[in-house]
Write the structure tokens for this entry.
Amino acid sequence: MNTQNDQFRVENLYLSFSTRRGTVQAVEDVTFTMNRGQTMVLVGESGCGKTSLGRAILRLLPRNVQDYRGKVFLNSQDIMKLSREKFRREIRWKKIAMVPQAAMNSLNPVIKVSEQVIEPLIKRGTGRERRKAMEKAREVFQLVGVPQDFLERYPFELSGGMRQRVILAMALITNPDLVILDEPTSALDLLTQANIMNVLKRIKQERGFTFILITHDIATSSELADLAGIMYAGQLVEFSRAYNLFREPFHPYSRKLMASVPSLQEKKELEYLPGQPPSLLEPPQTCRFLDRCPDSFERCEQEPPVIEVKEGHQVKCWLYK
Amino acid sequence: MENEQLLEVKKLQTYFTLRKWGFLRVGEVKAVDGVDFDLRRGEAVSVVGESGCGKSTLAKTILALEQPTGGQVYFNGKAIDITDKEHLEWYRSQVGYVQQDPYGALPPFMTVRRILEEPMVINGIKDHKERERRIYQVLEDLKMTPVKEFINKFPHMLSGGQQQRGVIARSKILEPSLLVADEPVSMLDPSVRVEILELLRKLQLDYNLGVIYITHDLSTVRYFSERIFVMYGGKLIEKGEVEDILANPSHPYTRALLEAISDPDPENVNTFKKVPPGEPPSLASPPPGCRFHPRCPDFIEGKCEKEVPPEYELGGEHKVSCWLYEKEG
Ligand SMILES: Nc1ncnc2c1ncn2[C@@H]1O[C@H](COP(=O)(O)OP(=O)(O)OP(=O)(O)O)[C@@H](O)[C@H]1O
Ligand SMILES: Nc1ncnc2c1ncn2[C@@H]1O[C@H](COP(=O)(O)OP(=O)(O)OP(=O)(O)O)[C@@H](O)[C@H]1O
Ligand SMILES: [Mg+2]
Ligand SMILES: [Mg+2]
């Protein structure tokens, strides 16, 4: 059994935004637990709240936050209780890092790669600190498979795949306990994508990093996943070992989602979901999936509870009550 | 007599001249470099390849939106003549184009009705009733129903999938016999993707449309087309029926592509993928010989870096441009 100390746990996390048209409920009552060294993939349709969940964990919040609460345990400490200053100094980028969506385009093209990579490490920039930081930078470059002389280059000289590795190196340089990767390969070519997945897999095995991988590419996510979370309209509707998701999903939405993934190996009939997810603006108090669900019945007019169908396998659906 | 081939593309070549200060020639980009293929009436083919390999340029050249620097495109047996304005207008009314990037494709200030009406007005369909009939028909075909609800909407009121269907509707409104769809689903959610591809497939079958489907997503092609063309560095390096290529990929590049694709399988966690080193070639200074040779695991020294491989027939429709097949050819 793993001790509490080795776990990352999110409990009843909420995040909503206020807009002129009303409240956008982007993350609603999300709960899950993962162990050190595990990778969880977070999948779901565009706009379902994946990035918002990542940002909520890292407290990277926009101005128009309306409601933000819940518990986030890292090494048995509820980091939601920390003051803003303390969180910034001790947690963000140090213990939890994030590779934001489309980040490879956020490197400043005219500042040397090395300067940008060591940035999270140096506070004052004294000579000795710099030298140590550069040493660390060389080490992470090796880890992600970027030639060390690239440190002396400028981002515009690098290909998309190399820039994405540099971004990854920046997230790893502080040796964080948890790294959130938001769509790290979706902007890349097929072969480059496969390359980055190989890199992630290798550093996961060698260094035991804990990852949350946000993606809508289910097939590729299977390359890395130990755990899988399925999000629908702001809620985590299923959370389990990845094996269950790929082989035997429980929630009707998860099943439909899996049935829509094309496969090269087998010639299966593809399915798709008719209709659209509900708006996150003042969402209905029924099951969010009700309108599109093939298995709905009367009870689904009420919001379903989260049901633990097996140990570590939770499903938010009345079918399993 | 109608020709069985809808489209014939022969030695097609599109080079872009790179200039300095607007006039000084400093080089060229060989975006399409010697492409040959036929497309039968009512047949769907997929063109797959990595970003920048020339797929969109090939599409635009076929559509006569880009002028070829060499080779020729024949439509219904007739050579397309870019200099003959009348002929060109006729040709453009015969081919539909679904361009890459649906979000920028629809003019934001026009309603769906106007977007669909405009090409008909331009092409001289004067009968208002006929125009209205076609609009209703195409929107029904694309399941944008009830039509009355959609017809007065502006693009920003449509979801991504609906916008994409709007783009397809527009490309179909003149009832073309050829449709070129450039990455029609890459911007969409996976669950919507399948729906749009199935709609396209249905249109193709119902109307006996020839379709060229351009994509970098190999995993969808089996659901959509009869044949696959694999493009690398401005050339089609392997062609064949879908099942042949998937079962028996012959070019080392095609093999690498297929190997890179993941199937949704939990066992994937335990294995690494074989990925060829390096990056796709620059089309401004492509490597000599076979363009894949610097990354190729089966590189034959003294051969592959010297001469461009010819196309070898592997039986049926299966053809490959690779020196490995020299003896068998
Ligand atoms: N600052 C904000 N103010 C208001 N609404 C917001 C804000 N940020 C995000 N949203 C909305 O919250 C919802 C969830 O957004 P989020 O970016 O988390 O989705 P996502 O699952 O990451 O989508 P994608 O796959 O497209 O990246 C969306 O409807 C989005 O429009
Ligand atoms: N008008 C132009 N002038 C100069 N070069 C061009 C022009 N249009 C395209 N190119 C170049 O030609 C090459 C092929 O581009 P093309 O857009 O056809 O690629 P693609 O396969 O469609 O890529 P993607 O998958 O990213 O859409 C690229 O190197 C591109 O930079
Ligand atoms: Mg996102
Ligand atoms: Mg293109």
Q: What stands out?
A: Chain B has a mean pLDDT of 90. The first helix of chain B runs from residue 55 to 62.
